[in-house]
Amino acid sequence: DLPRYERLPLFNPHRPDFICQVEATKVPPIDAEADKWFNEALALEDPEIYEDDRDYKKIVQLTRKAAERHHWKAMLNLASLYLEGRDPQHGREDAIRIVEEAMKLGIPAAYDRMGTYHMDGIVQGGDATTAYAFWQKAADIGNPQAMAFLGEKLKATWDNPRESFWANMPVARKMLECGFAQGDGKAAYYLHFLYTREGSSKEDKARALAILHEGVKLGSTECAGDLASEFRGPDVQMDTYVPFIDKARAERYLVLSLALDFNPLRRFPNLDKVLPLPPAPLPRWDGKRETLLKAAMAVTPPKAAPKPGAASQRTGREYLDAAYDFRESDDRTGDSHAPFAGYWRPTAPHESELVRSYLAGILPALYRPGETFDQQRYPTGAGRGAIPGVVWQRLLTARHNDGAVEPVAVAGLSRQVARPEPHRVCGADQACPVTGTWQPWLAPAHPLRHAVNQPWRQTWLTEGQRFPDLRRDWLLPLEPDELTWHLLDDEVPNLLPDTEHV
User: Fold this and answer.
1) 22, 141 in Cβ contact below 8 A?
2) For the chain, what is the radius of gyration of the CA atoms?
3) Is the Cβ–Cβ distance between 351 and 378 less than 8 Å?
4) How far apart are CA 282 and CA 443, in angstroms?
5) If DSSP codes are grouped into helix, strand and coil, which group holds residue 161?
6) Going edge to edge, which strands form the sheet with 391-399?
7) Cis bond leading into 422, ω under 30°?
8) CA atoms in the 13 A half-sphere facing the CB of 74
9) Sorting pLDDT into bands at 50, 70 and 90, what band is 32?
10) In the predicted model, is pLDDT for residue 101 greater than 60?
11) Residue 41 pLDDT level (bands cut at 50, 70, 90)
12) Half-sphere exposure of 297 toward its Cβ, with a 13 Å CA cutoff?
């Protein structure tokens, strides 16, 4: 049976419980070179570029190259590009097949996407019943977008299936908390409603305010818009969760809301630097949109110059850009053809030490999807003919920078800053020693590095504050000694022109 018609349990709005799973622990490891292509494609789709002026041929080419290496986000983006008609040679069926391939890889977001395809009639015979089954599956295996969608549907106080909402507050809360912890802005927006119901306590209202504020950092235009409205001054009959009317704060939230509405890829992890929650005072601001946005966005240090390695001196399929190095992966195949694009090398786990050593000396080579692997023959003195039972191992590309703390952002969505001197590093269970922007970081080989080593995970802290709790706040299976925090920017908030500096 085709994955698009996978038989799944029917959606159960009255399920008794929900166990939070984290998508980052389920997806395939990301190839660094593929990630570079993926980010380049995103930059070419910048909303600042008029749609007719965007180079969609190049966007499709870059996205496809990344998708062929099983970059899971690129796979789903490529499916969207096909549905939008950005590549005349590929259409609806190709898009569905890409999502099916992603489903086979266990990617939670692929189940969420297939649910949308069923709801929108893109899959033949699709309907709401099958759509909700796919969305339920996506949420159960870790997709935060599905959690946000279903959590919003389950947070009602009574059932109305005709209008697609049900009363299951305990499960709604767990879904939304799980999606929020994974960085989903919509989950944050829907979650805050659970703390602002009639009769909410002072503590609940404070929690709602904090959730909305975090939602702005995560890219939610709705969160920013709500806070702008609340701080501007609610109706006198309404119960508000902000401590006081503050039109200056309202103005800043409105600027952020409009920016996020225009470009949903924006994130503002350093929001507390320029728009802290009360009672912290507001830094002065020159009133210019770009000043505020740049100060709140992520920061990235200059990239270290790549060190040429042996692979960058080679030619042909054995060449690797000097910016990258190889890292082993768990992907292996005994087939004679490459199952997907990437660098592969032969192994023979059941052969003699002599043969295994011989194969270990063969350089990784780049293969296209479906390309036939080079036949491996016994070395002199070890046997005759082709080596049977060869297992090909995929090697990931990794950034060749000795593990330097260099979070990668889409062009235009971060601000480059000089590294503070001296370089400061803190453990996750310590208090912040210096006010500034701190970046969490996992070792280059850590399986969760792509979930943590992201610009949107940055946080602006003042001296003495505690770093986020890895398990409580992020729901990630990490111990404090696995992660370190690195100071990337220690400049004081500066939202005024140079002529106004004291």
Assistant:
1) no
2) 25
3) no
4) 36
5) helix
6) 324-333, 391-399, 342-347, 365-367
7) yes
8) 27
9) very high
10) yes
11) very high
12) 22
Chain centroid, CA 379 distance in Å: 45
Sequence ranges of the domains in the chain: 310-399, 409-499
Question: Alpha carbon 493 to chain centroid distance?
Answer: 27
CA atoms within 13 A on the CB side of 450: 18
Q: Residue 282 has which token pair?
A: 């507001």
- Looking at the DSSP assignment, which residues form a beta bridge with residue 326? 397
> Phi then psi for 255, rounded to 5 degrees?
-60, -45
Q: Which two tokens stand for residue 439?
A: 């970046």
pLDDT at 285 over 50: yes
**Predicted model pTM:** 0.94
Question: Per DSSP, what are the bridge partners of residue 437?
Answer: 460, 489
Give the bridge partners for 414, in sequence order: 298
Taking the CB of residue 14, how many other CB atoms lie within 10 A of it? 10
Amino acid occupying residue 380: T
> CA neighbours within 13 Å on the CB side: how many for 177?
17
pLDDT at 460 over 80: yes
DSSP secondary structure of 32-63: HHHHHHHHHHHHHT-TTS-GGGS-HHHHHHHH
Q: At a CB cut-off of 8 Å and minimum separation 6, what does 240 contact? A: 230, 234
Query: Which of 408, 434, 421, 425 has the alpha carbon at shortest distance from 483?
Result: 425
Q: What share of the chain is helix, strand, coil (3-state, %, to 5)?
A: 40, 15, 45
Q: Which of 449, 470, 448 is nearest to 459 (CA)?
A: 470
Angle at the Cα of 290 (from 282 to 275), degrees rounded to 5? 20
How do beta strands 165-167 and 414-416 pair? unpaired
Q: Hunting for tokens 């070419």 — which residue is that? A: 44
Task: Say how many Å lie between the first and final Cα of the chain, rounded.
Answer: 70
How far, in whole angstroms, is CA 481 from its chain's centroid? 23
Distance separating alpha carbons of residues 29 and 396, to the nearest angstrom: 8
Q: From CA 394, how far away is CA 341, in angstroms rounded?
A: 9
Q: pLDDT digit string (tens) for 177-189? A: 999 999 999 999 9
